[in-house]
Amino acid sequence: MTTPQAPDARPVPQVQTVRGPVAVNDLGSVLMHEHVFVVSEELRQSLPETWDEQERIADAVSRLKALVATGVSTLVDPTVIGLGRNVARVAVVNEQVDLNIVAATGIYTLADIPDFFRYHGPGTLLGGPEGMTDLFVRELTEGIADTGIRAAFLKCAIENELTPGVERVMRAVAQAHLRTGAPITVHTSAAARTGLVAQDVLRSEGVDLGAVVIGHSGDSTDLDYLHELIDNGSYVGMDRFGLDALLPEDQRVATVAALAREGFAERMVLSHDASCHIDWFPPGVREQIAPNWHHTHLHDQVLPALRAAGVTEAQLTTMLVDNPRRYFTPPVNS
């Protein structure tokens, strides 16, 4: 006999994925910043010899099945407009892999907004409401294009400086967050400490920084910078394991271990920022310059190194399971 649910009990929160909604408690072990495909779409169409659709899909299926074999249940994919997002293609891959893939809405730019929005919206020649916000809200609440696949979080980016275009996208993301409760991930430059700039802009729009991952924070060993991001309330993305060209792995491991010893496992998430396919590099070059930059590296090599550095199993579970679950759990008043 089952016990009836109390009338005022909240339903179990769900996360939208490429395959449909999943209970937040069923996300399992999560990689919080990975890509399936990153493609320069217009160039792909202009250079058809660089792309074989079936080959690319088969390769992605193989790579993601290897990821699932490590025990990962969910991949959070912040591929948005500006990175060649094609959720229909990802859905074809996902049909063949038992993995939760969480899609994003937003715009990736490090400088200017897409020309589509240049002349209309706040502060533009034609003025009017912010069309980017309306687009993001629609993709969160109705679906991306005509796929029926709903985004579950928002993504924006800042590299070395807050350009007018970057700021406009960031404020549109903030407004979409306020309208939907969807959490936010920001691509940042740890070297330029622009995670703090992103926090300032988002906070000025009324965003609760506890709903924000400051991506690529793990590119830095500057504990003062990381402490400031954490003290402001955000999660820090220790999410580029395998990209030794930006920071050697032993330093990435030591930084995570140091923060864990200080009691900050509850504010870190782990990942690689890897892709099944990214066309930013000629064939073979990615594997040559970053041989460990792939989706299974964390479980194959990084987690053992973190354990050896003193990170406990409970702390690893916090970073891989508990923090993603909290991130995707909407606030009580949403």
UniProtKB/TrEMBL annotation:
Q: Does the keyword S-adenosyl-L-methionine apply?
A: no
**The keyword Hydrolase is assigned to this record:** yes
List every position bearing N6-carboxylysine: 155
Keyword list, A-Z: Hydrolase, Metal-binding
Q: Which PROSITE patterns does this UniProt record tie to the protein?
A: PHOSPHOTRIESTERASE_2
Which Gene3D superfamilies did the record assign? Answer: Metal-dependent hydrolases (3.20.20.140)
Query: One Pfam family of this protein, by short name?
Result: PTE
Question: Which family does the entry's similarity section mention?
Answer: Belongs to the metallo-dependent hydrolases superfamily. Phosphotriesterase family.
From the Swiss-Prot or TrEMBL record, give the protein name. Phosphotriesterase-related protein
- Give the organism's phylogenetic lineage: Bacteria, Bacillati, Actinomycetota, Actinomycetes, Kitasatosporales
